[in-house]
Amino acid sequence: MVSLGCPKALVDSERILTKLRADGYAMSANYDGADVVLVNTCGFLDSAKEESLAAIGEAIAENGRVIVTGCMGNEAEAIRERFPDVLAVTGAHQYEAVVEAVHEAAPPTQGPFVDLVPQQDVKLTPRHYSYLKISEGCNHACAFCIIPQLRGKLASRRIDAVLREAEKLVAGGTKELLVISQDTSAYGVDVRHEERQWHGHAVRTHMTDLARELGQLRTPEGQAPWVRLHYVYPYPHVDAVIPLMAEGLLTPYLDIPFQHAAPSVLRAMKRPANEAKVLERLKNWREICPDIAIRSSFVVGFPGETEEDFQYLLDWLDEAQLDRVGAFRFEPVEGAAANTLADPVPEEVKEERYARIMEKTEAISAAKLSAKIGRTLPVIIDEVGEPDEDGDIGATGRSQADAPEIDGNVFLRDVRPDLQAGAIVDVEIEDADAHDLFGVIA
Ligand code: SF4
Prior knowledge:
This protein is of the alpha/beta class and 442 residues long.
């Protein structure tokens, strides 16, 4: 399995592999040992499409028996034209079709014991953290985005099914749950926030109820798992989850893409244009939960963006003081409404603005991280190193302000040899740079 794209695609890959394993298939670590190669593609941006096509090309060259799925699977003709030897192409989220294509390409051989052994789901993330996908699709129409075309309208999963999956993951060793979807704060809108029974009480299909229930879960050791909310669209009702963070039911972390701050640009993007209110809300959230860490993402170089608009965004970032920021250069991906907008921003101007926003957000991050020196913070361990020539062992972890793969790390020195990945330890912070923290177990 070659799994490209976002965490939602990763969960799709996990689901496909779990089904195939139940059918008796094993995973190969490389092309040579594989009877068939699955490429789960990303079609969000042109650069992502290029990466997907390159991955298909490599799989064909290295193995030759290739099945393509994922968001770029929607362009089956273009893929077949370029790679006529592809065995099958399916769209995103079409697990059954992928499994069927694998059965055809490499018919399953039922071993004597396969069916008897109940198996844990296949996970492509380390054992101690898991993505929890709560819905598919999106009802918005942001001008730069084609995800609604690729993944369809919002379809929320039943809350009792989501909670059962979370419970199973935590019982199986997950210490950190990452709640993902295209639009996490719209969870349940499509089913009018219907109620379902969960452990003898009714719960609404709603982000706040979900967060509260996830906060009740306990690991086999009796600890509350860390629970992070990702892809949270900035609706007013998001305010309701902040007190859950202050109560310790939810990790004080929010991934909330704002995309820009200049009202004219936000309107052109078809995004909520109330950035002044957002600053006020951020201030309130920090009063309720002082340790809250806010991650956001921004698009620079959107058609029509003027130097004034961009300076407005930089000034807004000074006020917002966000902990983690991802920035993207606008790309006119095929099918996006923004492609027809006037006044495209020249590439060199886009590059220059990208460099300025990264410089700005790096300076803010450096100041915020150095303010943590001297504090003791809970850290989840991702990796424990080998002893160095002096026998000292280092480890890499993350604080509650760091989601895996997108945020920073906490680098530890002199850890005990029996320290395990997944352990949550208190760390005294000794130093910081623009992205990471450094410390020792308290
Ligand atoms: S909310 Fe996100 S997924 Fe939905 S259209 Fe906007 S950018 Fe795309």
